[in-house]
Give the backbone structure.
Amino acid sequence: MENALYIEINVVCASILLFLIYVNWRGVVREMEQIVFTNISIHSLLLFLLDVLWRVCNGRSFIGAHVLIELVSAAYFIQAAMLGYSWLRYFFFIDPNHSMGRSLKRHAYAAPVYALALLNVFSIWTGWIFSVDANNVYHRGPLIWFQHLIGSTYLILPAVITWMHFRSSHNYPNRKRLLLVSSMGLLAFVASVAQLLLPGLSVFCVGVTFGLLIIFMEDQHQRVSIDPLTRLNNRTQLRLFLDTKVAASSPGKHLVMFIMDLDFFKQINDKYGHMEGDKALITLSNVLKRILGPRGFYIARIGGDEFVTVAELRNFADSDKVIALLKNALAGESEKLPYDISLSVGFSEYCHGNDTIHEWFERADCELYKVKSQRHSTR
């Protein structure tokens, strides 16, 4: 009965991973991040299948059973190390401040996996990591702790890196995603410890599958709600936010919408190229996050070089102070670039009881048009 439950849990987890792999690969366009995530899923799937095969064969007597159990045990432990390495590689891929770099650096990170592969292969004769007795029953070897230490290090390292750098930087890109991936790595680590202490329970596969499923769901959410270039909210999320905010607002609150875009953005693209244009948009988005994010502004990119922020201000006159803060911050950023980044902003206050969201947006957009017209006429 225990054997059947163990196998059933692994099969269910493997089926979930097959679904994740299928969804990631059914599209025509496959981003590199999807490929790296799929690699983790494939390594996890192979690990679960090896675990099932080991459970079915362990202690059984049939022709070739002894050799099969030894090979499956070695392959299982090697695959477990590969899974940890793949998890670390995925974390480095989404962390803009770290990477595995070129081939030599990647091989250095993978060196513990190579060492474990050799130890597991030699364990067939030496029993260092595992052994199989005359009754075809698997036993742990004296160096099993080393196997788990290496795998655990790969899972814990993302959390350590995240914690260290979040302490030293409050403006850390991809903060939410890095926290999620590192947290799910810790979850997998806890599950691996539980599996080590309670070998009769299939805990590790549940922890890994749950972690990958959470990351996958968050990724799908971001694809439909987050602008891929700037990592800001997109037009769809802005509309949902405005519907909710307007419904919950009340007279006496100064609900202000700012619509803004970069001045002469087309000239930046034409003269310096679209990659530099993207850099200008990212620079603006980072300034918006740094200046307005801590003040509780809702920030979105609605297309091209157009951005929208919405906030409740103490009084409408504070709108000019907000714009001045943004322009000063952008002036500082322009010193690092071969061109100037300046901003045109139109803003409007929501009129309670007399406004629709469309009318409110149109007023702010008209103000933006006036500002841009004046700026172009004086250039």
Observations:
- The chain is about 65% helix and 10% strand.
